[in-house]
Amino acid sequence: MKYVSLVLISHSYEIVSGLKKLLSQVQPDVPIAIAGGAEGGIGTNALDIQTAIESVYSEKGVVVLFDLGSALINAEMALEMLEPDENIRIADAPLVEGAYAAVVEAGLGSSLAEVVRASESAKELVKIHR
């Protein structure tokens, strides 16, 4: 795989499914996996996250983005269930804007560190200038 992959985690399957569809239109070659909803409802599940990471893993790296606090806890649990790997990073970024910045950067063939940096820079995005 020649691109850093993304894993999108949300308490809602519909949110990450729609976001994946949007991002795939922006950069169709960047591998994206999703984990959303728990057992058909609202929530996250560490095993689903682990499976999503494994499905898009490559030596190029994987950036994990999430929506709310307990999604982070489950993402961290998923990483603990995997072999320790520096090529998997959880980004401290807003889900939508961070994922958008990440997929653009990944599509340029950037490194894992550059994709994480791009996603995390979305925290500084000013959407309305007054």
TrEMBL record:
Ranges of residues in domain PTS EIIA type-4: 3-126
One term of GO molecular function: phosphoenolpyruvate-glycerone phosphotransferase activity
Reactions it catalyzes: dihydroxyacetone + phosphoenolpyruvate = dihydroxyacetone phosphate + pyruvate
Keyword Kinase among UniProt keywords: yes
InterPro entries, sorted: DhaM (IPR039643), DhaM_N (IPR012844), PTS_EIIA_man-typ (IPR004701), PTS_EIIA_man-typ_sf (IPR036662)
Keywords carried by this UniProt record: Kinase, Transferase
Pfam families: EIIA-man
E.C. no: 2.7.1.121
Subunit description: Homodimer. The dihydroxyacetone kinase complex is composed of a homodimer of DhaM, a homodimer of DhaK and the subunit DhaL.
PANTHER family named in the record: PEP-DEPENDENT DIHYDROXYACETONE KINASE, PHOSPHORYL DONOR SUBUNIT DHAM
Described function: Component of the dihydroxyacetone kinase complex, which is responsible for the phosphoenolpyruvate (PEP)-dependent phosphorylation of dihydroxyacetone. DhaM serves as the phosphoryl donor. Is phosphorylated by phosphoenolpyruvate in an EI- and HPr-dependent reaction, and a phosphorelay system on histidine residues finally leads to phosphoryl transfer to DhaL and dihydroxyacetone.
NCBIfam families assigned: dha_pts
Protein name in the entry: phosphoenolpyruvate--glycerone phosphotransferase
Species, as recorded: Anoxybacteroides rupiense
Gene it is expressed from: dhaM
